[in-house]
Amino acid sequence: MEIISVDTVTRSTAETAAYYETVLGLPVSKEIGAVEVTVGRTVLRFHEDADAAGDQHFAFLVDDARFDAARAFLAAGPGLLGDGDRTEFEAQDAWNARSLYFPGPDRSVLEVIARRDLPRDLGAGRGAGAKASSLPVPGTQPGPSAPFGPGDLLSVSEVGIAVPDVVGTADRLADAGVGRYPDGSATFSPAGHIDGMLILVGVGRTWFPTSDRVVGEPPVTVVAQAGPSSPGVVPGRYELAPGRVLVVRP
Fold first, then answer.
1. Would you give the DSSP letter of residue 176?
2. pLDDT in tens, 83-92
């Protein structure tokens, strides 16, 4: 279920555009009251709503071979968010992934995640998400020690979405073929596959690993494509909660 686009809100399009363009180096398109960010194969669109409550979460996919470069880049730039002394987090066995968290614009909690069950050299020959000046040479992949750049962010891998009934929503998506990861709870349930997932959460939780970035209920529409890693997903439009929608294309 590869995530193609995400439409949501931000309290400040100016702050959001400046962050993604100058801190992460991603292509940004600005218009009055809206901003569009290209993250690899995914487009993030933000519309301004100064009164939006709560904070958001997005995770960006990186090749596992580029994880150490991502850590160095983030530590020197926006900084890493941690839990005590830990800033690198190994996911549960079912995920076979590791993550780094960092502060984003508008109090968002961002993440880079490397999923080991996806093919290696995911970004080989790809320039999506990178500015023209930093496109890789086709057919090549930066070595582990090469500087991290915007082309290393391959897609949006996760989108956090608040729903009033986490378990019930996860059950409905599972009935439609959207995978359900183990170790969920009444306030937290990942739904999707290794190529893209929704993090279904209850309102009022804080986004890990922070204690002050609180889950809100902003409108969000996620458009995803059923892919090789999600062959059983039933295409359609799924209303997750008022203003929160998943659209799965065949």
1. T
2. 999 999 998 8
